[in-house]
Amino acid sequence: MRKALLIAIAAFSPAALHAQTKTAVFAGGCFWGVEGVFQHVKGVVDVVSGYAGGTVNNPSYEAVSSGETGHAESVKVTYDPTKVSYEKLLQIFFSVAHDPTELNRQGPDFGTQYRSAIFFQSEEQGRAAKNYIAQLEKQKFFRKKIVTQVAPLKAFFPAEDYHQDYMKYHPNQPYIVYNDAPKVERLKQLFRDEFQDW
Questions:
Q1: 152 - beta bridge partners?
Q2: Which of 52, 68, 142, 146 is buried most deeply by CB count within 10 Å?
Q3: pTM of the predicted model, to two decimals?
Q4: Could you tell me if residue 7 is inside a domain?
Q5: Range of the domain at 82
């Protein structure tokens, strides 16, 4: 009886929960808004803002902002694949989180650090991303060509603490109100079944 209880407890431990989740890394302009969008998706367990795709270890926000490290502002999405699929995350990324036709910019932000990118962690993710882009292009979903970079994830570095959960804790910040709040509203409209509040 005691052994069965211990097994049951282990099954619900944080380590066991983590083993059941997967991660995806997306870049689509300022990470505040992309993070905010994915935090509102059912099945997403955690979202961390950070940096990926560069050549420097543990870069600072200032270094990344210079455009010289090669990193893109990115988000690492931890999700439960039994509740939301990687394909659904791709759909939300392309239709809500950013504009994949803008080269090295998003809205008011310019530079390679704001590029559109998917950093895949498995061949399966890489194929899914490339196939989805090909499908969008074939259907001419966008008027302009998709410029999203699809590349293997070499490393992800979490951003400074003050960038984490930024949209959640600064909903009235002008940049958030003008650039990012509309994305969340669009998510709510287009993906009503997948939407969740804070």
A1: 120
A2: 52
A3: 0.90
A4: no
A5: 20-194
CATH code for position 120? 3.30.1060.10
* Residue-level pLDDT, tens digit, the chain, 198 residues: 444 333 333 344 444 445 699 999 999 999 999 999 999 999 999 999 999 999 999 999 999 999 999 999 999 999 999 999 999 999 999 999 999 999 999 999 999 999 999 999 999 999 999 999 999 999 999 999 999 999 999 999 999 999 999 999 999 999 999 999 999 999 999 999 999 998
Q: At what angle do helices 31-39 and 181-190 cross, to 10 degrees?
A: 30
Selecting among 24, 25, 27, 30, the annotated active-site residue is 30
CA distances to 36, 49, 185 from 165, in Å: 7, 8, 17
Per-residue b/e over 41-54, b at no fewer than 16 CB within 10 Å? bebbbebbbbbbbb
Is the residue at 5 inside a domain? Answer: no
3 occurs within a structural domain: no
Q: Is residue 24 part of a domain?
A: yes
User: How many domains are contained in the chain?
Assistant: 1
Beta-bridged to residue 73, according to DSSP, are: 51
Concerning whether 10 is annotated as a catalytic residue, the answer is no
Tokens of 148: 């999203």
